[in-house]
Amino acid sequence: MKLQLKSLNLDNENYIVIGVSAGPDSMALLHYLKEHINSKIICAHINHNVRKESAKEEKFLEDYCLNNNIIFEKMKIEKYSGKNFEAEAREKRYNFYFEVLKKYHCKYLFLAHHGDDLIETVLMKIARGSNLEGYAGIKKLSLFKNKYYIVRPLLNYTKKDILNYLENNNVKYYIDKSNKDTAYTRNRYRKYILPFLKKEDVNIHKKFLKYSETLLEYDNYIKKETKNIVDNIYKKNMLNITEFNKLEKFMKKNILYCILNSLYNNVPNIVTEKHVNNIIKLIDSNNSNGSLNLPKKMKILKQYDYLIFKEHENEKNYDYKIELKQNNTINNHVIEIINNTDNDGNNICRINSKDIKLPLYIRNKKDGDFIEVLGLNGKKKVKEIFIEKKIHTKDRNSYPILVDSNDNILWVPNLKKSKFNKKKEEKYDIILKYYEREDEINE
């Protein structure tokens, strides 16, 4: 295994930061950089505090760094807010990386994503829908916080390459067993699709890397051209519809992505193709005036020849009721019907259809809503649950609630289960999983 690092000019860097979990990928990266660069290494480790092995892994990594003259920076997540674990853990992890980069005045953060990760991410993006940059998957080098760079030098290599490197160099590592749990979408791609692709072509990861790099080349060029047009037809949060309609459909979409990404500060997984298509529908409608609500309190107003982008505060009239289907997404909230899982947290709901009235629905909260809480032998107001779980006021009206056809609340996803929920050893025929949409990968 030989990593291409010359272009980074690491000899000019006093320190670099490596995100290390003690798993095989990050341990291989840590060992390689220790052996091949002159910069002082800071090992940044996050104890997610959700597995009993976490403390042991942290102690192992701390000892490893001590024995190898590596600076060890750690952070333990003491508690979670009750929302999507993966999204919250990722946010805390990257905030920690940011603080370490600032502390040591570092330019580069190294992460251990590899070629198999890239294949999984590209396929997931294609399945979910994205834009040109999104379809490219993972970048080898990406800007972080407008000042630092994330480097992923292992994208040329597969998991097998990494395991061979670890064995040849006698490097110890730990395995997170949850990476094999097929209740998670990424793990299903890893278990069922990757082996098929590798059987067809053992170097398939190189084809995906070439695909990714090609898309990013086109994307960079298109973004430059798009920015020039945006500067002419979009001023003071107002888009000139007359000038916009003179453009090709392809360029229209890119202009809207450019505007929205700027308004959302380039935070990933907020702007989707659905949002862009809905804006184009609003522009193309025969009505001179109209409006469209977007995530994070963003609102778009159509007023004759202009489209106005602005924030709005009032969501009191937010109201929806949707019949439950196989996969349901409301904003970034996802409720998915699954076949099986060993998990039994508040993000999993098991129901016996004989106990309730079908079909099931997802709706937002109503005044006076209550749930008969599992194990409590009593009722609890949904409003009180939101307060206890620190769900922000602005998010409460759009938070999904599972009800049956009699409007009995069966589940407040990720927060509280009702008396209708079954334990793993009981009888049930419906399993639901909740998560907030999250495309980024976690080692």
In short:
By secondary structure, this protein is of the alpha+beta class. The chain is 37% helix and 22% strand. The protein is built from 13 helices and 22 strands.
Write structural notes for this entry.
By secondary structure, the protein is an alpha+beta fold. It folds into 3 domains: 6-173, HUPs (Rossmann fold), CATH 3.40.50; 236-311, Uridine Diphospho-n-acetylenolpyruvylglucosamine Reductase, domain 3; 321-436, 3-Layer(bba) Sandwich (Phenylalanyl-tRNA Synthetase, Chain B, domain 3), CATH 3.50.40. It contains 13 helices and 22 strands. The chain is globular, with a radius of gyration of 24 Å.
Write the layout of secondary structure elements.
Elements: E1 15-19, H1 24-36, E2 40-47, H2 54-67, E3 71-76, H3 85-103, E4 108-110, H4 115-128, H5 132-135, E5 141-144, E6 148-151, H6 159-168, H7 185-200, H8 204-233, E7 234-235, E8 238-240, H9 241-244, H10 249-263, H11 273-284, E9 289-294, E10 298-303, E11 306-311, E12 321-323, E13 327-330, E14 333-337, E15 348-351, E16 361-363, E17 370-373, E18 378-381, H12 382-388, H13 393-396, E19 401-403, E20 409-412, E21 416-417, E22 430-436
